[in-house]
Each structure stands twice: as structure tokens, then as C-alpha cells.
## 1
Amino acid sequence: MASLDGKVALITGAARGIGAAEASLLAEHGATVVIADLRDEQGRAHAAAIEAQGGKAAYVHLDVTSEEEWAKVAAGIEAGHGRLDILVNTAGINLRGPIATTTAADFATMMAVNVMGPMLGMKHCAPVIARAGGGAIVNITSNVSLIPSRGASYTASKWGLRGLSKVAALEYAKDKIRVNCVCPGVVPTDLNKGQPYLETTAGVTPLGRIATAGDIAQAVLFLVSDAGAFITGLDMPVDGGFTLGKAG
């Protein structure tokens, strides 16, 4: 079993969905998790739930598009916990639509949250991780960053984040910081509950189902633990083989 005892992990977008599953799993394996989100009530409730199960958790408000807030959060974690070992950039938005109907404002918003947010996170958290002796960063992209997909701004943002992660893996290797991407397929969350494409996607996925938030969390756990100690610059699809093509 992977042990994260003594490690401190910051997870963005962790008040619900995939981020919440990541926070729960990393806490279960011994990490102190700092849940960062805009949803204060849900974030505090999830931190309290983790602590009620015997884990260690705290909540911080964070707008990932604000450099000032990132700097404050990174400094606060180092001051309050003495270290930071793990950063998981999960926060993201999904505005779908073809190029013809994509507005400049929508495109800019998507890039700000999905690309600039993780960039600012790495910029301000990597020095703290380095001072702790190194660690791991995981950026949650999507399998649309590996294959062509509809949705101009969303797909562009995820390809951008994947490229940014490659650069970060090179830049931070000297600080003993590994940077990897997890590329989920469709995951049922509060945002897409009941959508018909959930069943459709399952039908064309080689492993016969869509991913769960827990599947994504397990991939993150592997990459931030000692089991992934010699892995950096990886794009890990967690989509049941969807990127391979149709089942059968």
C-alpha cells in the first residue's frame, strides 16, 4: 500500500467530484490534504468529513486565476504545515462548442482556468516543494488532449495544459519535482449527471464502462507516491481504452 505519511498535498477543485475523491484517497494513505476551491461550504464540509474519518485535512479558498491568491495559499501552507510535497491541479471548467460559436471571452475564460491556473500553481508551489526536498505535481488534463475531439476551447485548453506539463517536467527535474498528467475519459459528476452520452461512451469503451472519480484518484495516488518515483513527463490516460478506438 502506498504511504504518504508526513506528506502535505494541495488539491485544487477538491470540494466535489474528482478532486474530492483525490483528497479522500490521499488522506486515507496518510497525507495531510489541503482542499482548495471556490465552493467554501462544500470544501469545508469535505475537509470535516475527511477528519471525521481519521484523516488530516484543511480548506482554503482559492481562485486559480488569481496570482495573488496562489502566492498567499502557497506561503500559508509553508507557514502552517512547514512543507508542501504534492500539488494536484484538478480545478477546471468545460465550455463546449465549435469554433464558429466560440466567443473570445469564452475562450479566454477557458484558458485562464484550465491553463493559466495550473501554471500559476506550479510557479508558486514548486519553490515550496523544492524546499521540502522535492515531490510531485499532477495536472488533470483529459483524454481529449490525446485524440481529436469536438469542443474548440476545451480541447485547446487541455492540449495546452499537457504541453505546459512537459515543460514543467523538464524545468523542475533539477529540484527533484516530478510533473505528470492524468488524462481522464468521461467521468460522471454533478455537472453531467443523467446525460445520454454517459451510456453511449460506455458502449464504445473497450473495458465496457466509463471512469469513476475513484479511478482518477487511484492514478493520482500512484503518480505522487514512491511507486511513481522515476516517472515524470507522463500522460496517463484513464479511460478504459477509449483512446484506442471502439470496443469489438
## 2
Amino acid sequence: MANAGSRSEEKVSVKERLRTNNLGWRLFIGLLLTFCLALFLHFREVRVEVLEVDTVAKNYVVAQVDFEFPDNESTIIFRQDATRDIGFIYKIDEKQIDERSAKFDSDISRNQPALDLEQLYSAAKSVERLMDQARFADNRTLQKIRQMNLSTQNYYLFTPYNNEDAVNLPDSFWRELSSRVIQSNGGSTSAVEYVIERFRSDSWNVEEDAGAQRQLRQVVEASIAPKHTKVRAGSRIIDQGEKVTMRHMTIMQGMKKALAERRNLWMPLTIISSILFALVIVILGGIYFRLFCKGVYYSIQKLGIFATVFIVTLCVAKATEYFLLETSHHLIEVVRYPLFAPFAAILICILVDHSVALFSVMFLSVILGVTLAVDHNRFLIMNLVTGIVAIIATREVRKRKEVFAVCGKVWLACLPILLAFNFAQNIYWDVPLAADVLSTLCFMLITAVFVVGFLPILESSFRVMTDITLVEYMDPNNELLRRLSIEAPGTYQHSLVVGSLSESAAQAIGANGLFCRVAALYHDIGKLFNPHYFTENQVGGFDIHQLLSPLESTKVIIAHVAEGEALAKQHNLPSTLIDIIKEHHGTTLVYYFYSKQVEQMDGDVDLVDEKLFRYQGPKPRTKESAIIMIADSVEAASRSLDEITETTFTELIDRVVADKAEEGQFDECQLTFEELGIVKRTIIKNLAVTRHLRVKFPERRR
């Protein structure tokens, strides 16, 4: 068990090192892109007889080379043979264990033995736990478990008769149980023996543990490697008129794979040239990102998104080429200008960066233009122009439906280019031009659908929140925001002001202002559970905290963070918003109730546990989180100011920020002193506007 624990810790540490090693991940992404590019340049189909399942073969099919194929039928037979030795696995009825444990506790309470009660209860709990974990099996099953290198610590040799409702568990089980309890508990031997004797005197119901049996079978089956069957060249794979089955399809795939491995077109120099070409592109991309897009270069998340979109675009392009080439209607002659660059441009624009999108458009247009079966020059021009137009049109996208408008603009940009191609040949209008107009329209419609469908997948996979998603979460009809405005209107108004303050402060230092506004709307949703315990929601001058002790009040106040986190998870809010909910108070002290508790202890701080009056954290880990913490504290504290002037606001925010900094709340958020100063000045400016005084109008004379 100790070895297993150490191995687990080793795996976790390796995983953690990989996660934090950004250079390693960048190299991995670069190699992945190089590999995919080289593969794309070399990919070509191997032609074999096309078969369809459940149809009749029109011709004989003979193996062209020696090859192997994965024989699923043989694999199933071998796995069935391997699991034949597995018998039934039994466990003790859990309900009966609970009932006997409760009865034991009751008996001990009534008839106290001459033993230490604490040791008795501890031993009883250990026995109950081990009995719940105990499994019984026959000798063959235990041997199979050992063969799979699985732990048999909780397994015991015992097979009850099928016709028995209740059985007496074997003495060997109770002896082993007693030994393990004494060893793990380190308690009194007499107490353990007393408990064991009480439990073993009864018969027990045992039942089949289907889950353990199923798990063991799965492990045994997984240990059997897939079997491969050899086929000799010249062997008949399928006869004329024979019905095609999945086995035939698998054999054909095996032959296709063997032919691909043996074809002579993969000359070493050609392979090296393709790898070098792909490597040059990736290296140029890395240099470009390092010099001009440092935010992307140092973000594994953004690099991962870029690589994913780039690779998916290559795959879509190759699949489209295959479809156009293989169709019986010769569509390759009709669809002369397939558009792939806009797809990558829109996605990378929304998820990563505009300059990265421009880089992608340029290189994708060149790569696809020289490798696909298209008119290279015109394809290059069309994809470059449409990609750039897509980048320009995507800059202000805030809603998913606007993607269709972007694709519409891109299609409109295609029209003058298509006309220019025709005019260059002294042709005003012809059927191919009409086909080009329709095909580009179809491509942009498909692009819009693909982008809208693929965008949420990338958002969830890479845990990135786009402006589109953020705007959707700002909808006041959102269930949480609607509840907040109705059930806790004071908190809702407070959140609106915090959102406004934090957004302007974030924009001033180059952070994500829109995210701050949205996160601020949700940062206090935990107050929905007890809204009237918070000052901003109290009406009528009555403070419910007058009925509570300072510690009780603190627990209610602090609980809104954990309750907000639970509510956010219940409504599937993104993890970035949940982080703000957890971090917006950091590990700060609820000083008001802490000082009250100290007063009740006659000023003796040693009698008050400060930890009970602190939020659980964590501390802010991003600039946006720190900004929201500052805005939240300042907005709340500003409500208690007697005099509303810029001077009082300045003193207030200086005091708030100094207190937070002294407690180390900004240690993990990478917020510099310069940025902190800008945040303070921006919040002061905007807070002064929100708290301005109006001119008192005289009463109208009657």
C-alpha cells in the first residue's frame, strides 16, 4: 500500500511538472504542428476495392500483399476464455452491517462492560469499515486477481452455498480482521477481541458483488492484447456475390494499410523535404509569436487553441478535397475556389488574437494553395482576401448570431474578386462564374455553422471565456441575475457598481474589462441564501445581527462565498467566474465582527481565534480578481462615508489597498505597484461620479 501511495504521488508530481513547464508544452505543440503539417503534405489515398457492409460483392477481391489485420472475433474468443475462471465475488450486506453496528452501540450504552468505551467504539468503527470492504471469492478467482497484479488485501477465501440466506463467516476471516484492527488502531487487544466476539456470534447475509465482478472481468479482458490474423498475398478475401460483413471491411482496411506502408512514393528525400518545410513554417510561427505576440507565445492555452484550429482546418481542407475528387458528379470542376481561411480566421480572432489570425490566414492560404487540387494562384488570392475581411469583420463580434453577419460580409467581398477574375479574361458573365458565386455562398454558410458549433467546444475544452460568452452571461434575464435583482436588490445594485468600477480599472491597465464587469455581477450570488443578513438588503433599520453573537454573524457572512461557489457549480457557470467568487475576499479578516468579539473578551485578543473570522480564500490569482476585490471593498466602504469628496475617496481606497497589501492578498495576482496606482486612481474617478450630489430643487409655489 505504501508503494502504491508513493507511485501515486510520483505521478502527480510529474503531471504537475509537465503542467508548469511551459517550454516543454511549447515544444510539444510545435512538434505536433510539424508532424501534422508533414503528414498533410504527404497524405494521399491508397486505392483498394470499395465495399459496403450488407451489400453483395460484385467482384472477387484478392490480397495484393502479405498483411495482418486486427481480428476482433479471435480477440473476443480469447478474452472469453480468459474470464472463464472468474467465479462469484460476494460482500456482506451493508444494511445489516449498519443495523448490527447500531445494535452494538445500543448494547454498550445499556450494559457498559469493564472496558474503555472510547477504545470499544473505535474498534467497532474499524471492524465495521473492514467488514464493509471485505470481499469473498473462491480460490480460482483469487488466483486470477493476483495474476492481474491487483490487491487482495480485502479479499478472503470463502464461498457460501447458494441456498443459504445467512452464513457464519469463516474463522480465518475473523482472525485476519482482528489482526488488522489491532494493527491499524493500535488500541486495546481486549477491546478488539470483545467487539470481534460480539460480531462473529451472529450469522451474516452475503450478496453477490456484481460491480467487483464486472471490474475484474474488464481488467482481465484488457490484459488480452488484440489478436491479428495473417493474410497471404493471392488469398481470396471475398467471393463474387458474397455478402459483405464488418470482417471483410476490417480485412480491406488491413490490406490498405499494408499497401500504404509499402508504396515506393515515400522516398527519403521527399519525406525529409516535407518535414523541413513543415519545420520551417512552425519555427517562423514561433519566432513571429515570440517577437510580436508575446501574450500568445507564453500562453499554453492560446497556443493550444491556435494549434487545434490550424490542424482542424487542414483536416477539413483535406476531407473537402477528397469529397470533391471522389464524387461522381465531378464537383472539383464546379467548386473551383473552396474557402478555408475564413473558418480559421474567425475562430482564432475570437479565441486568441487578431495578429495571430492574420498569420494563420497567410500561411494557411500558402500551404493549402500549393498542396490541394485547385488553381493555386486564384485559390491563394481568394483565401487571403476573404481571411483578411473575416478578421476585420470579427473585431466587434459580441453575439454568436453575428458570426453569420461576418460570413455574409466575407461572401460579399468574394464577388468583386470573382468578377475581376472573369474580367481579366474578357468575360462578363458565364455559368462557371454563377457556380463560383453559389459555391462560395455555400462555403460561407457552412463556415458560419461550423464556427458557431465549434466555438463552444473550444471554449469548454480550453476553459476560455470569449467576449461572446461574457455578453451572454450579462443578460439580466439569466436566472441567477434575475433572482439576485428580486431577492437581494441591494446586492444586485452593489454588483452593478462594482462591475462598472472594476471594468474601467481593468481597461486602464490592459486587463479584461468585460470579464470584470460580468464576474462582478456574479461575485456575490451566495448572498441569495440569506440576503437579509447583509446590510445592503436590510430595510426598516432592523439589523438581524443584533440577535447573533459575533462568531455566528461571521459564519453567516463568510458562508456566502462557499454558497456562491456551490450555486455557481449548480448552474454550470464557467470555472473563471467561480474563481472570482472564491477569491474576491481572499483570506481577509471580517474585522467588524472580529473587533466585536475582542470587545466581548475585554480586549484580550489572545482569547479570540482569528482564523474563525477569516475567509477561507484562496487569494486573488489574477489581475482581474484583485481588481474586483478592491472595487468590492471600496464600494461597500464608501457607503459609510460621512463626507463625499475626492479626498475622502482617496483616503478610503488608500486605506483599503494598504490593508489588503499588508495581509498579502495581492501576492499571487502579479499586479504591479504601477498598475495598482492606476487602478486606485481610476476607481476614485469613477466612484466620485457615482456618488455625486445633486442640486436641491426648491419647492414649487402653489
## 3
Amino acid sequence: GQGGRHPLSNGSFTLLMSSEDRALRRSAFQNLYAVYGGVKNTLAATLNAQVKQLQFFSSARHYPSALAASLDGTHVPVEVYHNLISTVRANLDKMHRYVRLRKRLLGLEELHFYDVYAPMVSGVDARIPYTDARETVYQAMAPLGPDYQAILCEGLDNRWIDVYENVGKRSGGYMAGSLVHPYILLNYQDDLDSMFTLAHELGHAVHSYLSNKAQPTVYRDYVIFVAEVASTCNEALLMEHLLQGTQDRRKRAWLLNHFLEQFKGTLYRQTMFAEFELRIGQLAAQGETLTADLLSREYRALNEEYFGPDMVIDDEIALEWARIPHFYYNYYVFQYATGYSAAIALSRRILKEGAPAVKDYLGFLSGGCSQDPIDLLRGAGVDMASPQPIQAALDLFGQLLDEMEELTRQN
């Protein structure tokens, strides 16, 4: 609260940024970046070394670019990467609309980067005990058919899941796909996010379960590019189920807020990260040294373009590149955005077409790595080499924005 002292760490930062106390958010934001500012040259040197190292290995192995070298391991064509960026760029107007909506709902003269995680809709009683979440997630997966639900039952009833926080237990949600059966680690907190995490991890678990059953050992393990599709498709189906069952305006707005945040955080933000990686890779290939000033300049420019004119671009945000570990993973983050788009497209197809779509989708979940990821997804009915699924997801974002604007206009 007001005037109190709060410990600041990378972990607590996320929590502080979603506080309703604006002074606390601003203070956390400024203090965190002051620390990164103090070591920005060191962090620029490490990122520069990472990018140059990848550059060296790529040219030594005769790849046309560092991007091509990074994507080759999982056989994802570079067009998929470029196609994601160009399609999202063509839809930045929707992100700018989201920023305007957030500004209006928070009642702010100026929207700063320390305001982007504050809740837009509050006052909804949102306690969701685990027993309720379990039941809701199970019901929400009904469109995937009885076979899928039977696997869920098996997992939920036979202790596949370690549900609650505990001393010495790591935070977050994980799934380990062992051959006996998948195991899920949760830190369930009785809230909406926790229920979505349950749906997400169960998506991974059923993917592992089906691939383990259908594939020989060499083809059991699936790659990240398709993994995120299985988990996020469950989240999309859960959201659809919750919206179907809610007519109450305030509760509906609260759910839409969660959905819009996912689009912002997954489709737009991860694509912005992907574009930043591409830019610094290209600059490094031209012989530039990636100094802190150059990295901050590039990162700031991207934030201006992605968030638009209604966002105040605080000086601190230009340093955010220094605290994103994914920039050391070599063209990895784009898969969150492509996976999200594919999942949205698949969930729409499942809800619209029913049985034939479910059959294709279960075939995809049983595929492991028996084909290249793009081919596996084509089999499920989504072509990630085309702009279509990404555009469809962005169109849905537009429709959700329309409804959110409509719902909150009468308040």
C-alpha cells in the first residue's frame, strides 16, 4: 500500500505491476529499470556475444542467415517467421485500439508502460476453487469428444497432478510426459489464471499421452512449435465455454479482459520480440556491434510502432531488452505467437465442424514428431505457411475488442 516498502525482484515485479496502486507500479517500474540501467553495457556485451556466436556458426555451416540456421533444427521454413511479422504488422491498428480502450477504462490522462498490467475490470468475485476448475475444464473440453475427455478423467482421478504450492516447490506450471503417464506440476491459487493454467497443462499432457501411445520411441517427442498449439487450443475452448455460460455484463467484460490480455501478451508482444531479434541479427550481420544504445534505440522504436500514439513511451522501456531471457534462445519466441494463432484457428474449426475436425486434431496430437511441424498442422487443418490463421486470430481479437468496447460503454 501507500508508503510501504516492498521487496523487488524479477519474480515480484510481475505481481507489483498488476497492483491497483499506481504509485506502487510506477515505483517498481522505475526501480527495476534503474538496476538494469546500471549494468546495461555488460548485458549488451553478453547479448552481442550471443548474436555474434550464432552468426559465426551459421556462416561456418553455410546457412544463408542466422534465422535459417536456427529454424532448420525443427524444419520450420523461414517464410513462417516473416509471414508472422508482416501479418501482425498489418494489424497494428487493432493493438492501438486496445491501448486506447485500456486508457479509457483505467480513466487515465496518460497511459504509461507501468499501466499495461493493471486490471481493466475489477470488482468481480473471482474465487475458483480447484474442484470447480477441474469440473469446468472437463466440461469445456466436451467439443473434443468422449475419447479426449476419458483421458482427462484418467488424469484427474489418478493423481497425475500435484496441485498446490508447497515449501521448496518451484513456481509456475509444468508437464513432464513420462511413459508411465504424464505428470503435471501446478501452483494452484484459486483464480482464473490458475484455471487456465490447468487447461493449458492438461493440453500438453494429453498430447504426450496420445503421442506416446501412437508413436515408436524415436517419434514420441514433439517440438515446441506444435506443443504450444495443443495447450493453447484448450485455453481457447475453455474461454469459449466460459463466455457461452456468462450473460452478466461485468463478468463477461472481466473474461474478455483476460482474453484480450492473452492476445496482447502472446500474439503482439512475442511478435515484437521476434522482430527485435530479426533486426539485431541483421545489424550484427552487417558488422554492427550491438551496444546498449543501439539495442535501446531499436527496442524503443519497435515499442512506439506496436503500442501506437496513445502510449507514453517511458525511457525505462527502452531497456526492457536487457531482462528478456528469450533473446538468448535464438529465434525461439515467435513460436508462442504462431502456436497461439494455430490454436485459435483449430478451436474455431473444432467448434464449427465438429467430428471431422476433432478426428484431424486427435491425429495431430498423436503425431509426435513423425512429420515436420508444418505438415502435422496441415493435417489438423491449419497452414502456418500462409497468413490465413494469423489473420483469423487477429480478426477474432478485433471482434473481442468490439464487444469489450460495447460492454464498457454503458458503464
## 4
Amino acid sequence: MSMPYAPLTQLPPQRHSNISLNEEVRLYSSPKERERYENLAELYSIVVSLDYLEKAFLKDSVSQQEYSSICTRLLSQYNTLLKDEGVQSEFVSLQHFKDKYGLDCSLATQRINVGIPASVVIAPQAASALASTSIGGIDGAGGRSTPTGTEGPSTSRAVAEATGNFITCMDALKLNYSATDQLHPLLGDLMTSLGKVTNKDFSGRDKIVKWLITLNNMKATESITDDQSRQLLFDLDNAYKGFFAELD
């Protein structure tokens, strides 16, 4: 048998909030903390933007030149933001950041791990596929194919730029540059300039790409060993010779 309802004679104590509903809720308590959150928000937008860019490139919705330019800029911004110790301590790692904020972005993850645009990595394969569809100087798209060498897109200015970047990289190693944040930008500029000259996979090119990936997976404060520095200089010298052999 249920008991009849009887109202309470005393009301429970009420809890009062000290937060005004008209006040903005701040996520930070100092300008430094605010800057850290803004930088984390920038990193979030870079990862999402990079994922959309990769999808657009796969669908041919963006030209290779536009893709390379935008991708290089986004990767540079990503690495620059992570140089801040406060941001790095909060970021921890890309996987931790993705898990914390519910991001997937698998294509962006792959591109960040590689550290260079896909157009730089796949240039030789793309050129080979295009050459296989060329008949009598007509490319697969129905236009005139351009010979690889010092003609067409391989202008004197582009060759001079690539040569200068080769020399800069080798001089940096001879001056004992070893930190990741010193060498990675130089090798990135070198690969970008090489792509403007030739799409062929000349001798030594693949090793430069591997060095870029190796450096990209290291922290900015980490450095390569003396043995690695010597090997990188050797690989650059061989690639330099292979590059000019390809132009002849």
C-alpha cells in the first residue's frame, strides 16, 4: 500500500552560482595562455585544411602548382607553430592532438609525416605515366609533349635556382649545420626547385626525399649525427651530379 503524498515542510537549500550569464566565459587567465590557445586553434585549422587540400588534389580539383604552393605553406606554418614550447607541451604529438579533439584527417596525417607535398614525391612516377601515353610527340591529354631537359619548363632561371639550393645545402653541412630546423627547410627548398626543372627520377633524387622524411620525423631541437651529416653530404653530391647528367 502506497503512502499518500505529503509536501515537505522545509525547502532544500538553494545553490547560487557566482557566474553571471551575461559575462563571457574565458578559457584563459593570462595573455600568454590566450596566445597558446589561439595557436592550438591555428594548428587545428591547418590539419583540417591540409586534409581538404589532399582530397582536392586526389580529385584533380586543384592544379599541381596551386597544390604545391598551398601545401608547402601549410606545412611551414604547422612546423613554425610547434616551435613554441608552450604549444608543443600542450600538443604533445599529432596523434594525441587528433584524439583529444576528435580529428581523423588521415590524408593530412600522412602528408605531415612525410613533410613535403605529394607533387614532389610522385613527380617521377607521374612523368613516367605521362611518357607511356605519348605517341609521336602527342601527350595523353592530346597536346604536344615537352621534352625534359633545358627546354620548355626547364628554364635557365629554374636551373640556376636548383643549383644554388644544392650548393646552399652542401655548404650548410660543411659549416656543421645539424639541427632539424636548420636542414629541413633547405632540403625542402631544394626539392621544390628541382621539381621546376625536371620531373624525371634522376640518380640520387630518391635519397633526398628519404632524408626529408627522416628530418620531418625528428623534433626541431634534435640534430643528426656526424655520420649522418657525412652521409647526407655524400648523397647530395651524388644527386647534384645526377641532376646535371639528366640535363645533358
